[in-house]
Design brief:
Blueprint (H helix, E strand, L loop, with lengths): L10 E7 L5 E7 L4 E6 L5 E5 L2 E6 L2 E4 L8 E7 L5 E6 L4 E5 L6 E2 L8 E8 L5 E10 L2 E10 L6 E2 L7 E6 L5 E6 L10 E6 L5 E3 L6 E7 L6 E6 L10 E9 L5 E9 L15 E6 L3
Antiparallel strand pairs: 1-2, 1-23, 3-4, 4-5, 5-6, 7-8, 8-9, 9-10, 11-12, 12-13, 13-14, 15-16, 16-17, 17-18, 19-20, 20-21, 21-22
Pfam family, one: PD40
InterPro entries: 6-blade_b-propeller_TolB-like (IPR011042), WD40 (IPR011659)
Organism: Kribbella steppae
């Protein structure tokens, strides 16, 4: 079932200027829990809510026709050319849908009833999707980074281990996939940011702190990584957490605080930078 707002809660969509830290409220709702903002190539904001997808503006939300795709979750990305949106549906599969309307196309393969695809990234040439494959192995949920051609075809498993991985997203040059993982800690739930080289499989750790760091999103110009930082001790990426921080990580390793909010799940799950790399979008859920 789609998430819903708690009594007295609001969904608030903001755009923040990364040079000044100034933020602008784009849309607020006390009836719809919307999530995971990202941008079209021409600068329109897109969010999901109640299993559907919307274009968001100051005058409200306009539903995007998904052509009969099953209800979606909050994992969706837009093609670099701006013509297609790729979504993760509650049936566990990935679909391509023309952004301006039309028949959907299933991209993912059938890997069995215990396998679910959670979409997070598209390569800069638009040819490959990066997703998290979740498999139920006995009583364990195993997650790894996978890729698949946007046109359909064979999956490639990028990581193959027992570590909890999520948030896989391509670098602007397509040479790396960035993700969060628990591979550097023996404390359950303690995720940090990493990247893996597409050509060699070399893994590099990017953050090394006491907080729980999720969803690395790279600016289109490569100038910074925006990510969601949870308080120490958090497991996973739950909703309705106090002291969630949005941070920027520069190429030289400097960390800068951009915002502190009540939220978490849905705040910034998908690529959320503006096309010009000057701002990014996020959702807060104040009570």
């Amino acid at each position: 079932m789609p998430r819903t707002l708690r009594p007295g809660q609001r969904s608030e969509l903001y755009v923040v200027d990364v040079s000044t830290g100034d933020r602008r409220l784009v849309h607020s709702s006390t009836t719809l829990l919307f999530e995971a903002p990202n941008w079209t190539a021409d600068g329109r904001l897109v969010v999901n809510g109640d299993g559907r997808l919307f274009s968001a503006a100051s005058d409200g939300l306009t539903e995007i026709d998904l052509g009969g795709v099953p209800p979606i979750n909050n994992d969706h990305v837009l093609s670099p050319d701006g013509t297609t949106i790729y979504v993760s549906a509650d049936d566990g599969h990935l679909y391509a849908v023309p952004l301006e309307g039309g028949a959907p196309r299933r991209v993912s393969n059938d890997r069995g009833p215990g396998f679910h695809h959670y979409l997070h990234g598209v390569s800069p040439d638009g040819r490959t999707l990066a997703y998290i494959g979740l498999e139920q192995v006995g009583d364990r949920r195993v997650t790894n980074v996978w890729t698949i051609p946007t046109a359909g075809g064979a999956d490639v498993q990028v990581t193959n281990d027992e570590h909890a991985d999520d948030g896989s997203e391509y670098s602007p040059d397509g040479k790396w996939i960035y993700f969060n993982s628990e591979r550097a800690s023996t404390t359950p739930g303690h995720a940090q940011l990493f990247r893996i080289a597409v050509s060699t499989g070399e893994v590099e750790q990017l953050t090394f702190d006491e907080r729980v760091n999720w969803f690395p999103h790279l600016a289109p110009d490569g100038s910074a990584i925006a990510y969601v930082s949870f308080p120490p001790g958090i497991r996973g990426h739950p909703a309705d957490v106090d002291d969630v921080r949005l941070r920027l990580l520069s190429p030289d390793g400097e960390i800068r605080e951009i915002a502190t909010l009540f939220g978490g799940q849905g705040t910034m799950n998908v690529p959320s930078w503006s096309p010009d790399s000057k701002s990014f979008a996020y959702v807060a859920y104040p009570l």
